[in-house]
Design a protein that fits this description.
With about 130 residues, this protein is of the alpha/beta class. The protein has a four-stranded mixed β-sheet. A four-stranded mixed β-sheet has the order 5-8-7-6, covered by helices on one side. The protein is globular and about 45 Å long. The termini are far apart.
Length: about 130
């Protein structure tokens, strides 16, 4: 078995794709003509977005929408970058909300957290082998 993809259910797929393009520099792989599903170019594992309507179809008993929750959900998308502070600033300029400013962690990474307009929690972190300079 291998990890295939992550799908985040969001209010508006196109808006989430556009935000991730602006805030994190990820390229759009595609957006389905229905607007209900889209993917970003993220390497070997796909990061995808699906509409709440598609989520309701797939999960008829319901789900917790990150966009409706006052607190971030207990799951995050982690994006690795050698320039966490710069990436954090860029994400905030694109409309993210700061959850935690960049900080050096005892294990050697620099880590920050932002919340996207669609409610998604994103960790920005340096590679494990990077110097912990903020």
């Amino acid at each position: 078995m291998k990890f295939g993809y992550t799908i985040i259910y969001v209010p508006e797929v196109g808006a989430s794709l556009a935000f991730f393009e602006r805030a994190f520099g990820l390229a759009r792989r595609f957006l389905h003509e229905s607007g209900d599903y889209g993917e970003l170019e993220t390497g070997a594992t796909t990061l995808a977005f699906a509409s709440h309507a598609l989520g309701q179809l797939n999960l008829p008993n319901g789900f917790v929408a990150a966009s409706e929750s006052m607190l971030p959900l207990g799951v995050e998308v982690a994006l690795v970058t050698p320039t966490v502070a710069d990436a954090h600033t860029k994400a905030l300029a694109a409309g993210a909300i700061e959850v935690q400013a960049p900080a050096a962690k005892p294990w050697g990474q620099v880590v920050s957290y932002v919340r996207c307009p669609d409610g998604t929690l994103v960790e920005l972190c340096s590679p494990m082998d990077a110097d912990p300079a903020v």
